[in-house]
Amino acid sequence: MHSDGEGSRPQCPTEDDMREGDLGDGMGARSRGHQDHLPQMKSGSERSNEPFSWTSCRAMYAIFREELEAERVARWEKRQSESSSEDTSEELQRRLQEVTEEVELLRTELEVTHRHLEGKHEALRILQGQAILDKATCHTKILLQKSEERNKALEKEVNALQWEITFNQVQFKNVENSWSLKYERVLAENEGLKKALEEKITQHQEQRTENASLSQKCLELLSMLSAKERKDYQRTQPPCSLRTDGSALELAVYGACQCNSNGGEPCSCARSAATSRKQVLQLKQEV
Q1: 120 in Cβ contact with 23 (< 8 Å)
Q2: Where in the sequence does UniProt note compositional bias of the Basic and acidic residues kind (predicted)?
Q3: How many angstroms separate the CA atoms of 151 and 129, rounded?
Q4: 3 state SS of 88
Q5: Three-class SS of residue 240?
Q6: Lowest-confidence segment of 100-109, 229-238, 254-263 by average pLDDT
Q7: What are the tens digits of pLDDT across the range 97-110?
Q8: Hey, where are the domains in the chain?
Q9: Are 43 and 50 a contacting pair, CB within 8 Å?
Q10: If you average pLDDT over every residue of the chain, what do you get?
Q11: How far apart are CA 196 and CA 183, in angstroms?
Q12: Which residues contact 3 (CB under 8 A, 6 or more apart)?
């Protein structure tokens, strides 16, 4: 009874027909009218240059419905032409029932195909979202890798600077210790020299005092001698210049002065006394 309907019904393939980028409609054989209604696939450069265009499920459903209506009308007309006028009403009812069952079967298959296409559409949407997520993840990984490389470079530079700072600190500490030792040694030498200088100054002052006393005694003795005795004394003295004698007298006066006891410059009274002594010595030399 259903042999005629089963023969004309298209068989669903066991494998998915997603080949060469075509999502497919879940049907194995396609009629000419269906192919005319579907948009043509682009090939070559046209397909690579244009973005992907998706045919909505509503449009596919409308196309299948038009196709089923056209097939039903064609079968009806064919059966009407083949049937003779002698067909009974029972035969017409039987054929009408077959056609109705075939239409219901095709409608069921159309619904299954519609659901299958919706599933593929949803899968494609998920794959597109996953591709976008993968692309974003890849970009994030690249940025993270660059950031890690930059952090490693900065860490190396910081380590180098820290090592240089530590090395400079050690060098500075060594130089500081060296200069501290030198400074302490110079201070010790200065202290020794200062003590030796003080001793020399003390000795010099003592010698000045002694020379002044001797010069005073010599002058007193000379004043006690007569003119002839002075001449005899001067002939027995070694030859010396007036400048040397004056310098000796100045030194004697400076050493006898008690105004400046720290060994600095002589005071004004010592200078005036030394000048007077030099003038007396000049007068004596002239006489």
Answers
A1: yes
A2: 33-49
A3: 32
A4: coil
A5: coil
A6: 254-263
A7: 888 888 999 889 99
A8: 3-40+52-150, 187-259+266-286
A9: no
A10: 72
A11: 20
A12: none
